[in-house]
Amino acid sequence: MSTSNITSGNTKSAMTGHGRVVILGAGESGVGAAKLAQAKGFEVFVSDYGVIADKYKAALEKLGVPFESEKHTEELILNATEVIKSPGIPPTAPIVKKLVAKGIPVISEIEFAKRYTTAKTICITGSNGKSTTSLLTYHILKNAGLNVGLAGNIGQSFAAQVATDHYDYYVLEISSFMLDDMFEFKADIAVLLNITPDHLDRYDYKLENYAASKMRIIQNQTADDVFIYCADDEESLKAMAITKPLAKTYPFSIVKPVETGAYLEETTIHILTEPTNQLTMSISDLALQGKHNVYNSMASGIVAKVLELRNDSIRESMGNFKNIEHRLEHVAKISGIDFINDSKATNVNSTWYALESMTSDVVLIMGGVDKGNDYSMLKDLVKSKVKAIVCLGKDNKRIHDAFEDDVDVIVNTFSADEAAQIAFHLAKRGDTVLLSPACASFDLFKNYEDRGNQFKAAVREL
């Protein structure tokens, strides 16, 4: 057996304890899992079918954990006691199928790390808004003086933090891919923001399969736990009818009052976990504007009230929060034209939210890797707000087909520079150029961050 691609930092790593843990994927979660598994006395091996980034190679070498890149050596993987899999590796990957056939447990980094912490977990999922809501929730808790960490699909690895830090609370952004590999994990507070078609290529193009995956956020919860959900989201309500929550539930709504939870009355948000203790706040005082962000702020506010934080502290944090990069991020105003980077909008619903919050005519830059998108939900907003579409991707046929009757100008581009320049020429003073792709980025870019950064650089060159 060739081991030319296998590297070991030093020999002192040959620790044996409770068995052999193999980690598939050497990104943030994989290297964090390796750190925790090693600290807990397991024999650890990391295997990545792709090229391992230099910073993660260096981290593994420093730990002294043996690893391989650009291959999966079966003899070194199929002898595992347990396997921790990167969320990006699909269950259809040949090595995963072989592990399952052998009866070797395959779990997520989140599942593994939770075994080794007694911290309370606030777990946030949803097709849209989960990064913003996770960051806002973390901001509120941290500003209130809680000893809190941020992990999951955002920030540093949960496992790495469990290995080195001692937080009392963790805010975890949880994707459906993570949930698929979580079994015994329990969220103390679970938040489901919404369910809209996303990643359907991973779920046999069936929304009900994807919805069932999202509902795993409440698995193992008891009456002592909390479940926060959107009462206005039809798919969430359908999924809840099939998978009934056992936890104490707090709905949030912008269309109807609720007894406990959060609701909007004209321009005032009411957040209450019991009738006698209510927080009220004008939506104009929220740091995050737009209808979708009212939902995100309500969800975070309910978490804060459940944890019995002071109203003044919650209000202050909800008013001074700064949103994440690549999510409706204002880049520049050039010749009276606003340029907004919403590269994190990798599905149709995210783009719907972005368009819904626009108050001027829009030149929309969209396109990329289509994950089985249904563009019909955008048609009304495109008709009323979008004057031109600039496609940014290798194959734009489905965008042309979807909107050729609604927009006079649809142009193809193949770089962020070209897209920014053409959008600038199509826009006029008072308009907005909005990058909100509704698609993944992997055809032309490394990831949505790379796409957003290239767009911002191109705008600054105009």
TrEMBL record:
<keyword id="KW-0573">Peptidoglycan synthesis</keyword>
<feature type="binding site">
    <location>
        <begin position="126"/>
        <end position="132"/>
    </location>
    <ligand>
        <name>ATP</name>
    </ligand>
</feature>
<dbReference type="InterPro" id="IPR036565">
    <property type="entry name" value="Mur-like_cat_sf"/>
</dbReference>
<comment type="pathway">
    <text>Cell wall biogenesis; peptidoglycan biosynthesis.</text>
</comment>
<keyword id="KW-0547">Nucleotide-binding</keyword>
<keyword id="KW-0131">Cell cycle</keyword>
<comment type="similarity">
    <text>Belongs to the MurCDEF family.</text>
</comment>
<dbReference type="InterPro" id="IPR004101">
    <property type="entry name" value="Mur_ligase_C"/>
</dbReference>
<keyword id="KW-0961">Cell wall biogenesis/degradation</keyword>
<comment type="function">
    <text>Cell wall formation. Catalyzes the addition of glutamate to the nucleotide precursor UDP-N-acetylmuramoyl-L-alanine (UMA).</text>
</comment>
<keyword id="KW-0067">ATP-binding</keyword>
<protein>
    <recommendedName>
        <fullName>UDP-N-acetylmuramoylalanine--D-glutamate ligase</fullName>
        <ecNumber>6.3.2.9</ecNumber>
    </recommendedName>
</protein>
<dbReference type="InterPro" id="IPR013221">
    <property type="entry name" value="Mur_ligase_cen"/>
</dbReference>
<keyword id="KW-0436">Ligase</keyword>
<keyword id="KW-0963">Cytoplasm</keyword>
<dbReference type="Pfam" id="PF08245">
    <property type="entry name" value="Mur_ligase_M"/>
</dbReference>
<keyword id="KW-0133">Cell shape</keyword>
<dbReference type="InterPro" id="IPR036615">
    <property type="entry name" value="Mur_ligase_C_dom_sf"/>
</dbReference>
<keyword id="KW-0132">Cell division</keyword>
<dbReference type="InterPro" id="IPR005762">
    <property type="entry name" value="MurD"/>
</dbReference>
<feature type="domain" description="Mur ligase C-terminal">
    <location>
        <begin position="326"/>
        <end position="439"/>
    </location>
</feature>
<feature type="domain" description="Mur ligase central">
    <location>
        <begin position="124"/>
        <end position="303"/>
    </location>
</feature>
<dbReference type="Pfam" id="PF02875">
    <property type="entry name" value="Mur_ligase_C"/>
</dbReference>
<dbReference type="GO" id="GO:0008764">
    <property type="term" value="F:UDP-N-acetylmuramoylalanine-D-glutamate ligase activity"/>
</dbReference>
<dbReference type="Pfam" id="PF21799">
    <property type="entry name" value="MurD-like_N"/>
</dbReference>
